[in-house]
Design a protein that fits this description.
- It contains 4 helices and 6 strands; from the N terminus they run αβαβαβββαβ.
- The chain is of the alpha/beta class and about 150 residues long.
- The protein has a domain of about 80 residues: Ribosomal Protein L15, Chain: K, domain 2, CATH 3.100.10.10.
């Protein structure tokens, strides 16, 4: 026996009928339409905002607002480890943010490029970036390369 499209139907109980509110006492949802007798929910636009707690001071107002956030002025750097430079570049090559974007090693250059010192580097490379970690700078120079800081 094969399954045919005309034999398909929803599972038992998976499709419930919509409640038709305010359609008389026989429906079980007549008169007040399932809203109860009194109170805010029974009134015309009886809705409250999501954080409303019945007049009690809301959680976001009770919670302490301490500290400092520098979000609007925060600098976001595209980061790259030395191990990636070791794999993707030849000895003596110049590494710039444009080349990294071209090779898709970084997705986006927000406020600049920072080179991190994770991994080893053996090739002499000229790396031009906005920032370097101390370990990255020492490893690049130890390999015979140059770490040039470019202005932002």
């Amino acid at each position: 026996m094969s399954l045919r499209i005309e034999d398909l139907r929803p599972n038992e109980g998976s499709r419930q009928k919509k409640k038709r509110l305010g359609r008389g006492p026989g429906s079980g949802l007549g008169k007040t339409g399932g809203r109860g007798e009194n109170g805010q929910g029974s009134r015309g636009r009886g809705k409250v905002r999501p954080a409303f707690e019945g007049g009690q001071t809301t959680l976001y107002r009770r919670s302490p607002k301490v500290g400092f956030t520098n979000t609007p002025f925060k600098k976001i750097y595209a980061t790259l480890n030395l191990s990636v430079l070791e794999e993707k570049f030849q000895a003596g090559e110049e590494v710039t943010a444009e080349k990294l974007l071209e090779k898709k090693l970084i997705k986006k250059l927000n406020d600049g490029l920072k080179i991190l010192g994770n991994g080893e580097i053996t090739k002499p490379l000229t790396v031009k970036a906005h920032k370097f970690s101390e370990s990255a700078k020492t490893k690049i120079e130890a390999a015979g390369g140059k770490a040039e800081v470019i202005a932002e």
